[in-house]
Amino acid sequence: MRFRTARAKAALGCWSALLCGGAFFSNVRTSEAALTSSSAFRIDKVEKAPSVDGLPSEWPRDLIKLGSSVKGAPSAADLSAKAAITYDDKNFYFAVDVTDDVLRGGGDGDHVDWVVSIDGVTSTLSLHPGVPGKSAGKALLGGTQLKDAKVVEAPRKGGWTLEASVPFTSIPGAASTRIGLKGAVLVHDADASSTVEAIVGSTAGADTLAPILTTSEQSLVDGMVKDKKLGEPSFELIANVTGDAHKERVLVFGQHVAVVGPAYRSGSEFYWNDMSVAGSTMSIDRVDSRDFDGDGRAELFFVKRFTKSGQKTKRDVAHVYTFGSNETADLVFQHEVGISNAKGSIKNEVSLTTDGAKPAILIKPGNAKGLDEKNYDEATEGSFDPLLLPWGTIDSQTYKWKGKGLSRVAEKTHAKPVAATPEAPKPIEGKAPPAEKPSADKNAENVHSLFKKDRKVKGTPKVDLFADCAEGTEAERVVLHGRDLAVFGPGFKKGAAYVFTTLPFAAPEDVKSVSAKDVTGDGKAELLVRGVLKAKGPNKEDVDREIEFVYRVSSEGVKRVFAAEVSRSIGKQQILGAISFAASKNQGKVTLSASKAVGFTKENYPFNQDAGAVGGIEPLLLPWSDKRELKYKWTGAAFEKE
Fold first, then answer.
1. What is the largest CA-CA distance in the chain?
2. 584-602: per-residue pLDDT in tens?
3. In b/e form, how buried is each residue of 196-215, taking b as 16+ CB within 10 angstroms?
4. Domain-by-domain residue ranges, the chain?
5. Which run of H or E residues covers position 451?
6. Residue (of 325, 332, 215) closest to 270 by Cα position
7. Which residues does residue 584 pair with via DSSP β-bridges, in sequence order?
8. Which of 208, 272, 455, 539 could form a disulfide with 203 if both were Cys (CB 3.0 to 4.6 A apart)?
């Protein structure tokens, strides 16, 4: 996540991104008004309000020429104009310099219109000069004079000038929204009578509004948007997501998201996040917002589509972020909600709804196109809640705010008929069920060949073992090609398909071992994978984190059910932990223990003791930690802390 100003362009790293991938919004596409258009009208925030005396001499920005002829064909001497707008914490301020052969003030003749759209509501503010020495100028909105506004004109040779101040509270929407505005400044000229004969403006007319860029928006456009050549945003939203009661503008540029607002970081800087993940391409398909936690500020919801390098399968993941009282966004929810491959697609129904009068996320399986239970062979997401399959037993899942994030509060299921199978042999406690390598099976070899073709891998597997992991009593074959761990066999999915998962390591050589062992006590072997995750330490040094993953195999996929860090090293310095498994009938336990340090001491070790799981990985216990042991028990779906 990054902060940017017009000058500061240094990125701030995020440790959690090493664990959970890269880290908003009404599903609104941007309007036809281009953010970077040359017709965008720039307005500046000032610390000291300009004097409203009719003479715009102390303004922070030169007045801008109004170059569009809206009505008539006036000459430069008959009608031409320049204008500027600025603001502070209370008011908008206007300055206009008009070249005009006759000033007809005090009525409906000469006047300035500011047509402005704020959060979808369009209003017209009319600034009417008075008659010098006879009547004061006035500001009208919808024909009603604004009592708290001030308008002062000043004749000059060959024309006239005007200044005005108008409170935010006088203009619909401006009290809470001062970002994402669109508008036009139009100068009306009447010579012979009060009838307007000519109009010049900043745009082609009241029906053609251009972006109005405040100070923070200018920093965004002049900095990141132009530097990275991002073009126009694909999504944008106006919502109160951070800061005080003022709304912010949320913009999505491909894989980047920005938040700007009048109060966020004093209105001079903006939030910036590059959401891309190494090794994958990403797009955003949906943007929305809801106040899930009830603090008066909206959380940010989006659906991102990921495609890993070298693969064709696309996976959709729903994410929710919250700013809360912080200046950075925290990930508080993620759920896989879609998948598509060469065979077809599945798209879950995802609704932002209410449950018991509180905002909630409702996820249903939705429909499948081209995919069914027989030909579906994609890996099951194990780091967070996976895709709901139309042929599965889950009808819906409901998530609501609980504690510091969104948690599942309800799940509706239905029974699924299961064909009778012979009773499996009773396993030896704590060990994988006995399984000998079956004789060569042509169908299994065909499935292996299909897997290698689908995943574009060649040669013999790095790991090739047999264990009774899933259906029936026959052993399944477990192979590792690169980072892809696949399971198939003559009695698995009728011997016609495979399931697999891509291990979460950066390179194949980071996978250290794969073994099979019944650690849940259900009579079927789980797959134990040991490998190294690469990271960077506080001083940019290389850090190796050795992780033990536990995967459970079913016909629906290979699902991760436990993960723990068992060692961490920087060079020759290392912290060693210990992990042990114990299983009896229908009972499984995992124990993590502190062990020893090599080269590290409590004083020179650069990391703190993690209090709980980080990115779904249980913590490494340090030798000097108060907690010497952590125990987990199998619940039927996952290992949970005792």
1. 108
2. 877 899 999 988 889 999 8
3. bbbbbbbbeebebbbbbbbb
4. 2-27+229-413, 44-213, 442-641
5. helix 442-455
6. 215
7. 587
8. 208
